[in-house]
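Researcher: I'd like a structural prediction for the single chain below. Treat it as a standalone chain; there are no partners to consider.
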Amino acid sequence: GLMLRSHVHLHLAAGAVLRAAAAYDAFAATVDRVVSEESDRVFLLARQARGVRISGPGTLEGRGELWCSEIDPQSGARVPKQRRPRMIVVEDSAGVEIEDLAIRSAPMWTVHLVASRDVRVSKVDIDNDMAQPNTDGIVIDSCEDVTIEDVSVKAADDSIVIKTCRLPDGR
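Model: Treating it as a single chain, here is the predicted structure.
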């Protein structure tokens, strides 16, 4: 995974594709403090960062199909592996922009905003496999001043959801 520090601008040019690794251990440097479904790893992580920007028009590719063990013959849904990374987590950060970007085939939650403020998600196209469980599009978790505009979300779970998870420090 990639750790995004303060004032970093990750720009994916037209035609550029940044693909997630296929092994859970490849995300050992980007561990999220919010554990979900026994998963705590992240493809792109901004923690305690200011002024981070992720922009396109390129594509983030999660390779979600690699994070399933089989297809359930009764439901037709993919059976997820026990541990899967999230695509983007912004935790305890401010002044973050995610814009003009395509995100494809998330293994789990796509954009998870945690205990952050002044976050803008704009012109983002999320396209996840409809048979891949728990690929929420945008999860707003204990945040303030979040703007979501001009987004398209295709996900097999919540498109945009507001929830409250607890960080290890009790926040």
